[in-house]
Write a structure and sequence with these properties.
Mean pLDDT: 87
Structural class: mainly beta
Number of domains: 2
Largest sheet: 8 strands, antiparallel, barrel
Strand content: over 45%
CATH architecture of the largest domain: Beta Barrel
Radius of gyration: 29 Å
Number of strands: 9
Low-confidence stretches: 1-9, 11-31
Number of helices: 1
Helix content: 10-25%
Strand order of the largest sheet: 1-2-3-4-5-7-8-9
CATH topology of the largest domain: Porin
Length: 239
Amino acid sequence: MKKSFLILFTVLFTCSIGHTQKVLLEKNVKDNAYSRKKGPNMKYFSHILIGYELFASPPDDKGAKIVYGSSSSLDIGYRHKFKILEFYSIGFSTEYSFSKYIIRQTENKLLPNTLQHDKEKLRFNNARLEFYNRFNFDKRGNTLGKYFDIGLYGDWTFATNHYTKDKALDETNMSELTVVKYTRLQYPRNYNYGLTVRFGMNKISLSANYRLSDLFKEEYQLPELPTFSVGLELALYSN
């Protein structure tokens, strides 16, 4: 009786271990198959992005000159990539784009008006959606490798501000500096769009944007600000 019970217990215990090992192996295979679909050079990949660009082209009129080196755009967002072929992918990104233009004070100044100030700037807060095509140039492992992107972006300008700063004695408030902020500006357009290109290697890329649309409404007859910007972009992810 004891011998029969011992044999039965041994058989049940062995079957139980074998069944457990089978489930674990199946689970690991599924997990590995799923993980192989996601990665910098896999079927699907996404990452955080940070970009900084300087405006580099001249304005369309001398009445809208800016201070180069200080007028810039900062972009923060999330980018998605879908691999179609070994050398070709498509994707999109959603971003917050913050642009500032430092207005140069000249005798020909027309933007946003002819008034002269010690310092003056326009700030644009945009929600951006970009669609792009990516072409890879090299053999690579599970990395982004060397690539060239070309795409189209669209901006929704949800907030614009106009700032002026003047050193002048205000005897009423007993101050020597006057800073004015104008909000809810009527002359900027709510939407604009343009082309974007990038040449990158893994996490760092050289980027450029070219705005195709006008920033200002036609009825205000304001000169347009520079349309071209160039800078660097950083992809944030862990390998």
